[in-house]
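Lab notebook, bench 4. Continuing the backlog of folding jobs that were queued last week. Each job is logged with the same field layout so the records can be merged later without manual cleanup. Today's entry covers Nitrogen fixation protein VnfA, a 355-residue chain. Filled in by technician R.K.

JOB TYPE: sequence-to-structure
TARGET: Nitrogen fixation protein VnfA
LENGTH: 355
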Amino acid sequence: MNQTNTKPQTPCVPPQRLSTTRLLGIGREPDPFDRIAGTSREICKIKALLNRIARSPASTVLISGESGTGKGLAARAIHEASERADGSFVSINCSALPPGLLESELFGHERGAFTDAKERKKGLVEAAKGGTLFLDELGEMDLGLQAKLLHFLDHKSFRRVGGCVDIQADVRVVAATNVDLMAAIADRRFRRDLYYRMAVLMVELPPLRERPEDIREIVSRLLRDFAEELNLSPRRVSPMGLRWLQAQPWPGNVRELKNTIERAVLLSPENPLCVEDLTLAPPAHDPIEARASDTFELPPEGVDLRTLERSLVAQALGRTGGNITHAGRLLGLSRDQVRYRIEKFSLRVHTSPDS
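JOB STATUS: finished
OUTPUT FIELD FOLLOWS
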């Protein structure tokens, strides 16, 4: 094979990632950006920008975009393409825990710092030393904790909850949000100084509706992955089905597309999958939104809210066979929020918490 031509064969491959081992055909770790499916102009520009961000020395990165656009995937790609790749990639959802517990999870706590602090615990910042800390849904963080995060970013040091010793930590912080932080600043829900500290390097991920030409590749990957995961024969989508997929608005972006393909694979035996298979839709209305619009009437004698919450979580887990993801859908909670309540109420789950 002629190795003299080192020109990239595709505009989606940043030239600086064509390492010697790749050019010589020697085995190496997969390119982290290959996980981001698509060859559209928009996604190629995003991959190139993410690559430049990964190789920069900046300690903070802010990723914005609608829900389901792959912000977590982009954050992990930044980590794996950076000089910190040998360090840990530690993530947490800022909306999944109440402020006090989130602070303890991030910065750790000393023994006796609060009622249940029976021993010293290191936080995620310490766990991410030399690596990357990913803060998902940063816009949901409590204002008080935002101030402590800003102090850490400015000084590279923090104190555990209940501690009096400054601890140094070299960590790159990558944060993601699907809310308009400038609007949150105007509403006094987000600190302006933290925004400018985090937004040293920014990237906004485009919604799927703005790059329908990428749907073919995304669907192909999803079908391959589901076939392997579910031990099924390979499937494909008919040309008409693909055109239908490309014409949809996908408000839930790639996550919604993934759910659509998974549902079709599980419920339809057809190959190729046609439009009818792809429209084996969930309920026409969102049960969570419907529940939110209902009014719960408080009994005259009142209720024990803790007992009620525990009962609802236990019922959801029982109804779904312990599947945390499905239980979360019934309750309108994320996986992390369900896990937190399992621990809070000491509930027994009869299947794996990752199910």
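OBSERVATION: Confidence is low (pLDDT under 50) at residues 1-11, 13-28, 283-294.
SIGNED: R.K.
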